[in-house]
Every structure is written in C-alpha cells, then in structure tokens.
Amino acid sequence: MLPLVPLQQLRSALAEQKRVQVLVQREDLVHRTRSGNKLYKLCFNIQYAKQHGMQTLVSFGGGYSNHLHALALAGQEEGMNTVGIIRGDYRANLTATLRDCQAAGMQVRFVDRQQWALRNTSEYCLSLHADFSNAYIIPEGGDNALGFRGTRLLGQQIGRQLQGLPPSGCTHVLVACGTGTTMAGIVAEMPAGVAVLGVSPLKGDDKLTAAISAKLVQASIEPQCSWKIDRRFCLEGYGRLPNELERFIRFFERKFMIPLDPVYTAKVMFALFTMLEADEFQPGDRVIVIHTGGLQGKRGYPKLMSPLHSSARLKSINIGAF
Ligand SMILES: *Cc1c(COP(=O)(O)O)cnc(C)c1O
User: Fold this and answer.
1) Whether the CB of 40 sits within 6 Å of ligand 1
2) Which run of H or of E encompasses 25?
3) In whole angstroms, what is the distance from residue 263 CA to residue 290 CA?
C-alpha cells in the first residue's frame, strides 16, 4: 500500500471568511524522485514490463516533461533501461529536465515535428521495437489503461486520507488535467455527493471531457460522483506564464510555503481562489485540492526560481483579499 502524503489545511482569510475548509493533498511529496501523479501512472506499467521480461521502457515527451523525468528516475531505481523520444532538438541547449534524464541513464532521441506526429502509429511502434529489443512502450504522459489503474490508487488515497478526519468525506475535489488520466482515476473512486472539478491548462477545444468519459466507459465504470472540466483557468494557454499567474504564484508560495509549478498546480490553486471569491462554494464545504507535483518542470521558468520570498518583488504585488 502506498504511503499517505500530508493533507495540509490552507489557512487563508478568504476561505475562513467564506467558511470553506480547504485541504491540499501533497502528492508532490509522495516520493523522493517520482513526484506526484506520475508515480501512480507509472507503477503498474513498470510492474507489467518487469513481469513480462521487458527490460527497456520507452516513452515520449517534451523537453520539460514531468513524465519522462519520473520515468528516467524510476528506471534507474528499478534497474531498467529507459528511452525518451523528445519533441524538438535540444542538443545544443539541453534542459535541466533532460540533463537529469540522461544522468539517470535515459537514452534520449530528438525527433522533428513530422516524426513526432507519428508517435502513436503502429509503424512507428514497430520501428521502436526494431531499434530497442525487449521494449515496453508507454504513451506520452503515461496515458494508458495501466496508467489509469494507477491513478485510481490516487483516488483511493483521498478516501483513506479523510477517514480519520471527521466529518469524513468532502464536497469537492480539484485537480489539474493534462491527458485527464488522473482526473479519471479520481472520478472512478469518489462517492456520490462529491463534485470533481478538473482544471484544464489548455486553450482551445475541450477534448478532455470525451477523453475522460472514454476511459471510464472502457473500464466499465459508472461514476457515482459528479464531474466536469473547467476551462476558465487556462490563463493564455499551456505553459504560458502571464503576469497575473506569476503574481499569484509569488503570493501563494510566500503565504502557504507550498511550491507550485506554473503549468498545472498554480492554475488549480488560482481556480480555487477565484472560485472562493466568486462564492462558488457553499459555507461548510470541504474542498480537497490535489497537488499533483511537477515541480522539476519549474526549472523551465528561471524567473520563478529566484528566492521565493524576495521582498523587493513582493512589495509591488497587491493581491487583495486573498
Ligand atoms: C502530468 C501532470 C498533470 C496532468 O495529469 P494527467 O493525468 O495527464 O491529466 C497534472 N499535474 C502535474 C503536476 C503533472 O505533472
């Protein structure tokens, strides 16, 4: 059984004023190297590969991928080979993420747009099997049936966390989405009466609702809880750091001493505070926010790596009632 992570109460004046209890499930602390939801998405995949005698784990991602980072370090610890197929050519400018991956023994292969577009085709898969013997191929982001099975464990952790905390149960779970696998795992496990809200960091059409529905249908799961994707908090789109978000991250980290990554967890916390202000929760509600980790990816944003609490910068920030 996986260890329980801290469930940390956010002591915020705004939450108190609205009489809403906010608890942060610190999955960023679940493992020394495999941070957050990626540990859950990888665990059954690695187990499967091992049981079937496959020694090489192959997967896909960008230059700052939390998924590849977790995979490289997991492979190293489990004594398996890892291969990362990378979107774009970083040879002249290796990112901190890719440097870690290589230091952990991951073989990286840079591919251009055209090749990247082929990554889910069977021809490309066959060519990977030809290049790497005994390979087990994991889709980008760990988004497969075994990844989903792992994220259901994360969903079960929420129930385990709340058992000792009367009144047991919660009214809302907030989680950041990429592929939606993690959200699907939570939705599968939450009882009736809970609303699961997925915060999408992606601009454009909503593909997440259909993707999550498909995962649930495929696993023959009829959710008990209610769930929906909230697209109001994409803040200029995936990976972008508008001033408003940067200001929010500085405020949040200083006030609560919880680090955030700008791609996922900052947006989920931004959603939380915006919804609190807009009275979208009822007095007496208990909201669980999942901190899905991803902090290594923050190194792609040098200006967020300066000391968290640099007072000169903070003086210029007016964060209002938060
Ligand atoms: C990958 C990732 C997500 C998205 O998870 P999905 O299961 O793909 O929806 C959310 N938060 C963090 C920090 C991540 O690294």
Assistant:
1) no
2) strand 21-26
3) 14
pTM (predicted TM-score): 0.94
* Structure-block tokens of residue 289: 């926010």
Question: Does 185 contact ligand 1 (Cβ within 6 A)?
Answer: no
| pLDDT tens figures, 251-304 | 999 999 999 999 999 999 999 999 999 999 999 999 999 999 999 999 999 999
Amino acid at 74: A
Residue 2 DSSP code:
P
The answer to whether the beta carbons of residues 59 and 138 sit under 8 Å apart is: yes
Match 């959603």 to its residue by tokens: 271
The reply to whether omega before 262 is within 30° of 0 (cis) is no
Measured from the CB, is residue 12 less than 6 Å from ligand 1?
Answer: no
- Cα separation, 274 vs 107, whole angstroms: 42
pLDDT in tens, 217-253: 999 999 999 999 999 999 999 999 999 999 999 999 9
Q: How far is the CA of 38 from the centre of ligand 1 (A)?
A: 7
Per-residue tokens: 171: 């009214």
Closest CA to 223 of 197, 191, 179: 191
**What SS3 state is found at 279?**
coil
